Amino acid sequence: MTQAAFYSLIAGALAGIGIYGLITQRHLLRRILAVNVLGNSVFLLLVALARRHPDYVDPVPHAMVLTGIVIAVSATAFALVLARRYYAETGLNHLPEDEE
Amino acid sequence: MATLSLPLAFFLPLLTALAVFLVRARRAPWLPLLGALATVVAVADVVRQVAEHGPQVHHLGGWQPPLGVELYADGLSALMLGMTALVGLAVTLYAGPYLRGKGYNTELFWPLWLVQWATLNGTFLSADLFNLYVMLELLTLTAAPLAAMAGDRPSLGAAMRYLLLALLGSLAYLLGVALLYGGTGTLHLREVGELVGADAHTAVAAALITAGLFAKAAVFPLHMWLMPAHSNAPAPASAALSALVAKAGLYLVLRLWLWVFPVLLSTYMGWLIGALGALAVLYGSLQALRQPRLKQVIAYSTIAQLGYLLLLLPMVVIPAAAVHAWQGVAYHALAHGFAKSAAFLAAGNMLYSLGHDRLEGLRGLTPYLSITVLTLGLAFASLMALPPSGGFLAKWLLLSGAISGGQWPWAVVIILGSVLAAAYAFRVLAVAHAAPPAGYTEVRPAQRVPRIMEWVPLLLVLIVYAMGVTAMPALGLLEQGAPEGLQ
Amino acid sequence: MIDALQDLLPLWALLASLGTAVIIFALRDERRRQRTFWNLFGASVKLLLVALLVYGFLQGRSYQVAWEVVPGVTFHLAADPLALLFAMLSAVLWLVTTVYAVAYLENSAQRARFFGFFSLCVAATFGIALAGNLFTFLLFYEALTLATYPLVVHRGHPAALAAGRTYLAYTLGGGMALLAGTVALYAAVGEQPFSPGGSAAVAEWAAAAPGAATVVLALLLGGVAVKAALFPLQAWLPIAMVAPAPVSALLHAVAVVKAGAFGVVRIVQDVYGHDVAADLNVTPVLAALAAVTILYGSLRALAQVDIKRRLAFSTVSQVSFITLGVAMGGPLALIGGLVHLVHQGLMKITLFFCAGNYAETLGIHRIESLNGVGRRMPLTSVAFTIGALGMIGFPPIAGFISKWHLGLGALAQELYWVLAVLVASTLLNAAYFLPVLRRIWLLPAPAGWPGAPAWRRGAETHRWLLYPALFTALAALLAGVLAAAEFSPLNWAQRIVEQEYPP
């Protein structure tokens, strides 16, 4: 199979893992990780898209991925700080509605 | 020079945010207001240009699409920009005294709010799908900290929940954009709209994008985060979040469906989305009836009112209803923006004065806060679409569209929505008129509210009533650049 | 320049009440003298401007104020004879009620809020009167609901709030029906200004699509019937009696109930036209409902022991005379209905003023407490007597004139059952008013009355509570005695009907 198809499949698998994690995990840190995995899956898909022509590589998706990574880093940073403040304030590492 | 106002509308608040962050608001408290005024001037120029010369275009860096990012302002953008500018100015004027009086850290607020304003302007001006992704993420990243500002348990939980759901939404949106890019090779709105066909590939992309935007705009059934987030945020932030940020999400839904996915807009699709809108109207109104605190009522009201905007999609496919529905939805977005922000600012006054916003506290408040109670009354009157407010004209247009097009279910939804809105509005207003029961005293005496905090919301809500006198100027502006069949 | 300003006279008159409201809202509660000044000034200016309108109209000027609100829909104020009739009535009675209210509410709380909404209420009524098309009518009709709610719940106690809820449920429901009907009408025939005898486009549409036209007419009439307290939508009216007496006076004589009846006249006469409405089989139903309301209201009134509640049910009954007059068709019946709009206003407001006086001065709320009060408060009781006799239909008081024309109209249309209804209602009115009069004049007074402190010797009650009642009683009397004169309400009604039924 082509590189594009291969990477797309991996991206699909990662997306599945990410969504599964986000929905089923209670711990906030794991959910943030899941969002990251999901983000990476989308980036991987974009990289795969860049490779869809056999002769040349499309640079625009690469630009999108770079921007996306920057955004993901900022978002993750904020999410982590928020989770820490949340833990400090409430002593919980999960949202209240996720009580067992 | 002619179209420089478009990027200026985005960059001015951004630069002000940077300046405030560096200089510290304590040392230059006039800086946010200066930036706000400059932004209002830039937006006024954009509106004037669009009104006189039609849709305006600006290519950032001089680079043409599909490689370069285009800023595009048509009538709808101009109206949304104008609303954001006026609400933004009001929030800027109100926030200083409010935050100081309640002991919040203003150093944090100003950069967040100003970047949010810049992002909102960017959202209304972008004609590029990926640029919109960046804007959406920025909206989330500025909204979540603002929601968490109070730093207490409910705020932090609400912010966390919002953040997770919003990030999921953004990623769904990005995935949809990736699919569209893979299919068409371009990111420019119009070009993508011309190139996509009605196939499964486009449908999946549309579903992902719509779902992502629904998460941002708290459309049923992805609405659970809105009430806790908006009701626990500080009042000026709540005003911005409900009146502007959530609306930007729905604006994008409408913009993308009308410009990018019109080929997919069948009766069936329209009904599906319209049904979600109707559910939002009914659910939000019913929940608003049960809330014990004023800000909670107003937050659920947002969910309900935004639902009306989705009624455009089922009606726009019917020629007899299309123009009325288009005009009604745009006018409703405007009227709601002003009324909702005024309501939240008035609720902020109540919080400031009494220290809480439980509905029973409204009793006997009128002598102290008569202007605030008046503002609240006028704002709710527009939300329930009573004449002579702008909300009434919006409802008239929507109802005209529904009845002209023979769309009885939507007509029923519109009328039922107003009835329910009246129910929750008068539940609040009745308490405001009630005499305090004998022996009732507040735990702490009412604190005096600074004059500017009383007057700014009133002026904001009077705009809604000016909108009620005639809709012709706004509707004339709306025609600029409107899609064919809607002019 | 003066000419241009004069053409906008309806707008100035509207702004006069709005401006008064704004000024009063801005004043703090304690500033009694300033508020009283602005109240009276505003009411007087309003009356003056309306008088100017009437004068200009008689000189042949046409006053039109219009601008486009939404594509295809205009906001339109027009001064035609019917509009001026209602406007004049409301302007005069506003001034009188303001005087009364100032004295009545002297010691109560939240006066700024009360008088502010009072002025807004009158502004809305004026807008309803001068509305030149159904959209403008709807606009002010709904605004009236918003303006009257704070007046109904003014006292703020749980009973008042409950009454307010009921009031809203009815009036907002009616408003929805009116809105739906108006939008549907606009969707079907576009914008039609009110035209005497009905608009041609609506007649065409009714001929082409009678089913839809009937549904829309039913919606429209249903919407206004709520405020007009037509059976079975009248329940809110007695419940709203919990409001202070000036509010009851205003609501029952001028604003809300009359607005509903006025709406019935406009919709049947100036939108559809009586013939079209009759062809759609709506007017017979309307007439029947009006007759039921007349009898039902009177029967319920008989059972009441509270003065204001008895008057409330009397209003329910009497206002339906207007509806009956419109529904019957023919010029004479219409004259009767239209002139009753004015006469009932004058008589009922007199009765409410007197009821308020009894309550404020002597703490009397129930009929059985009225024994012998004629000796203690003679002038008030004379006014009450004139009002009551007018309601029954004794000549030469105004009520007789209205009933006489309604009777003649019934004969002209060969609707003999209406005559039976008129006779029955007269008998019922006598049955619930004459015993009251007997108590007031003929029964001996008790040792003392419940409530309020005694006034100084020689004074019956506060001057400003007494004079309004006497004024309106005199007006009711003169409207009947001088009915044949040039500018009597009867003459004006005839002028209106000449336009609707050109000879």
Summarize the structure.
The complex is a heterotrimer of chains A (100), B (487) and C (503). Chain A is mainly alpha-helical and 100 residues long. Chain A has three helices and no strands.
Tell me about the largest β-sheet of chain B. 2 strands, antiparallel
User: Overall mean pLDDT score of chain B?
Assistant: 89
SSE string of chain C = HHHEEHHHHHHHHHHHHHHHHHHH
Spatial order of strands in the largest sheet of chain C: 1-2
Q: Write the element-wise H/E pattern of chain B from the N-terminal end onward.
A: HHEEHHHHHHHHHHHHHHHHH
Number of domains of chain C: 2
Count of distinct strands of chain C = 2
Descriptive overview:
- The complex is a heterotrimer of chains A (100), B (487) and C (503).
- Chain A is 77% helix and 0% strand.
- With 100 residues, chain A is mainly alpha-helical.
- The longest helix of chain A has 32 residues, at 59-90.
- The radius of gyration of chain A is 17 Å and the shape is elongated.
- Chain B is 74% helix and 2% strand.
- Chain B has helices at 5-23, 31-53, 75-102, 106-125, 129-148, 153-184, 189-195, 200-217, 226-232, 235-259, 267-288, 294-310, 312-316, 319-354, 370-383, 390-404, 408-433, 451-469, 472-479; strands at residues 56-59, 70-73.
- The model of chain B has no long low-confidence stretch (mean pLDDT 89).
- Chain C has 503 residues and is mostly helical.
- Chain C folds into two domains: 1-280, no CATH class; 281-503, no CATH class.
- Chain C is 75% helix and 3% strand.
- Chain C has helices at 2-7, 9-26, 32-58, 81-104, 111-130, 134-152, 158-189, 200-208, 210-227, 236-239, 245-254, 256-272, 274-279, 282-302, 307-328, 331-362, 373-376, 378-392, 398-413, 416-442, 463-481, 489-500, and strands at 64-70, 73-78.
- In chain C, strands 1-2 form a two-stranded antiparallel sheet.
- The mean pLDDT of chain C is 86.
- The chains are: A mainly alpha (100), B mainly alpha (487), C mainly alpha (503).
- Chains B and C meet through α15, α16 and α17 of B and β1, α6 and α7 of C.
